[in-house]
Amino acid sequence: MNVISQIFSWINNEILKMTWLSNLIKGLVENVFGLSIKERLGGSVHFFIYDTIKIFILLSVLIFLISYIQSYFPPERTKKLLGNIKGIKGNILGALLGTITPFCSCSSIPIFIGFNAAGLPLGITFSFLISSPLVDLASLLILMSFFGAKIAIAYVVVGLILAVVGGSIIDKLGLEKYVEGYVKEIENVDAEIIGMTRNERISYSKEQVKDVFHKVWLYVLIGVGIGAAIHNWIPQSIIETVVGNNNPFAVLLATAVGIPMYADIFGTLPIAEALFGKGVGIGTVLSFMMAVTALSLPSIIMLSKVVKPKLLAIFVAIVATGIVIIGYLFNAFSFLLV
């Protein structure tokens, strides 16, 4: 048992948290740049370089592996698979499908449109839409590198529950008539499922890595920059006053602040890490992350072109309410996770 514990500890420290990289960057900052990482400027430089490289390394490896797996589930096969399952099982499958699609909220909407055009139940398509930007295998492992396994697994579980419950509620409300008419008129071509060779899957995975990098690199740099500023320049007393555990509205405020922003989970994590390091409750931190990734303003604007205002309002209300509840629950039971 002790050997297994040591193996997991080594994987967590050397592969996920990349302690070796942190030490390498520390030597660079102190010996080459002549800055102490215990001071604000040196600490900010270390935070920025270390977190940026760590995220990009993890991102490259994980997106490649996930895309390789995803290559076995082309849209035609997915539509056929989901089309044969109804009810809560369909919502669960739709939510799980979102975990193998490393997309931001805006990138998930075209697939959401395709699923609706194919005649899939509305609840299943919304379970996918909630899950896809919120929870994926890459976010699970990167969350582990920042917050540890307990918090990462709990985040994924509650994210999936939110996707399943949200999709199920929308399904029960019978809101199909609030999907814009043109979506249902899109021609659904039942294309033949063509198998890919191993080399084609590798090429596809490489292209996915390039595509995801192109979409997220700027947001990662911005997120790491904000995280470095929070971590080293903003006094802890100010952060505790605004979103600390003593503020009963901290979760509501974090959710409200997160919605207008646009980033994916990879760009949001450094900010969350810095807030958590300043003593902000884990529930408040996760609520901010979920709001940014699942309810970003650009994705809501895009979704408004696909569904009518009533359905859009119900979707936002369900997801926002779920995020707030999750935030308060995580804060209340944080002693089990931290």
Give a quick rundown of the structure.
Helix content is 76%, strand content 0%. By secondary structure, it is mainly α.
Structure commentary:
- The chain crosses the membrane at residues 47-69, 90-113, 119-144, 151-170, 216-234, 246-263, 275-299, 311-330.
- Keywords: Cell membrane, Membrane, Transmembrane, Transmembrane helix.
- This is Permease.
- The structure is a single chain.
- The chain has one domain.
- Helices cover 76% and strands 0% of the residues.
- It is globular, with a radius of gyration of 21 Å.
- The model is unreliable at 189-193 (pLDDT under 50).
- The chain has helices at residues 2-16, 19-32, 40-70, 75-83, 87-98, 105-117, 122-134, 137-147, 149-173, 181-185, 198-232, 236-243, 250-258, 265-277, 282-294, 297-304, 309-332.
- The chain starts with a helix and ends in a 6-residue tail after the last helix.
- The longest helix has 35 residues, at 198-232.
- By secondary structure, it is mostly helical.
- Helix 5 packs parallel to helix 7 (122-134) and helix 13 packs parallel to helix 15 (282-294).
